[in-house]
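Archive maintenance. Older records in this collection stored only the sequence; we are now back-filling the structure field for every entry so that each record is complete. The fields below show one back-filled record exactly as it appears after the update. Entries are processed alphabetically, and Probable RNA 2'-phosphotransferase is next in the queue.

ARCHIVE ENTRY
Title: Probable RNA 2'-phosphotransferase
Organism field: Kitasatospora aureofaciens
Length field: 182
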Amino acid sequence: MDEKRLVRSSKMLSRILRHEPELVGITLDGSGWVRVEVLLDALAAKGRPLTRAELDHVVATNNKRRFGFSPDGLSIRANQGHTVAVDLGLTATVPPHVLYHGTADRHLASIFREGLRPMTRQDVHLSADTETATRVGARHGRPVVLTVNAAAMAAAGHEFRLSENGVWLTDAVPPQYLSRRS
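Back-filled structure field:
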């Protein structure tokens, strides 16, 4: 699979498995899973054929590990980032002392006023390292990295969950737990 098709296929799977399964006429179960054969048949019917080997390649080589197969390999889902309602079944986990969030500088005023909110997604996404947060922020403009006092949030009763691909998830981050990383 050439690089261009790999990227195009990954973006298409993100859109379908995170945001618009109806685009190809599939339904995700309550945990976000869909049978691989159902997904591949639906893609082919919509003129976007993908073989199982190509799907395996997209999942295996995605640098953000956005997708995962069920233990039996018969179903697939996105690991996080959904705008459709799913329950990933992630348990509450004690976070590291600090986490990071990448954003664009133009959003800082509202973030420091209202905190971090999930917007159209189910959760706020946080990173364990500044490099990842910087890459995320760069997608939205000039990147700014915010430090999240996750230890204080957890002590105050806020819940954190760790996705299969290493993204920390929480419902929201109130502004008092945020600071701008210098």
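Update note: Residues 3-78 form a domain with the Arc Repressor Mutant, subunit A fold (CATH 1.10.10.970). The chain has a mean pLDDT of 95.
Entry marked complete.
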